[in-house]
Amino acid sequence: MKQLIEKHYKENYDNCIRIVKRRAGSMEGAEDVVQEAYTRALHFASSFNPTINSFDTWFSRILLNSLRDYQRSERMVGMSVEIDDRDIEPIHDYTDSKIGMEELSKFIDTEPGSLKYEIVRLYFSLDYTPRDIAKLLDADRNTVRRYVWEFRTKLKEIYG
């Protein structure tokens, strides 16, 4: 498997950079994403099953996940790149033009930095999924879902 990944790297590295460069926002960002994708491919090589997917399909999923994680990390530190709407599936219904994070934070009944505040911020402002939030914050997934559900209920009461 390692030889297949190495061969893919030699033959497709430039193409991967081209695919990722615009969405990563810079050449350095694209190189980071592609390097991370190949590192993940080596790490998760045992998960490749040729009876389910072709190698290119399997690696493309890894590349796109690496890009998504890179974009999220850039947004977390305030160096956001413009992301095409087709790149992210909408996760929430209430943070459109009616309400922004500043206004959202008025309704969070905890202090910034608390677990509940961070869960709501990551979900509603940064488009993280409950599963990703649970991993990131090392929190119980059901707790994350409960906080999101409670906050959505509160927003429904206020905004309908």
Shape verdict: elongated
Mind telling me which CATH architecture of the largest domain this is?
Answer: Orthogonal Bundle
Helix and strand composition category: mainly alpha
pLDDT under 50 segments (min length 5)?
A: 78-98
Q: What is the succession of H and E elements?
A: HHHHHHH
As for the number of domains, it is: 2
Would you tell me which CATH topology of the largest domain applies? Rna Polymerase Sigma Factor, Chain: A
Secondary structure tally, helices: 7
Mean pLDDT: 76
Rg calc? 19 Å
* CATH class assignment of the largest domain: Mainly Alpha
Q: In whole angstroms, how far apart are the ends?
A: 53 Å
The description of the largest β-sheet is: none
Range of strand content: under 5%
Could you estimate the helical fraction of the residues in percent?
A: 55-70%
Annotation, overall tally of beta strands: 0
Description:
The chain has seven helices and no strands. It folds into two domains: 2-83, Orthogonal Bundle (Rna Polymerase Sigma Factor, Chain: A), CATH 1.10.1740; 101-159, Arc Repressor Mutant, subunit A (Orthogonal Bundle), CATH 1.10.10. The protein is elongated and about 55 Å long. The longest helix is centred in the N-terminal third of the chain and has 23 residues, at 2-24. Helix 1 runs antiparallel to helix 2 and helix 5 (115-125) crosses helix 7 (141-159). The model is unreliable at 78-98 (pLDDT under 50). With 160 residues, the chain is mostly helical. It starts with a helix and ends with a helix.
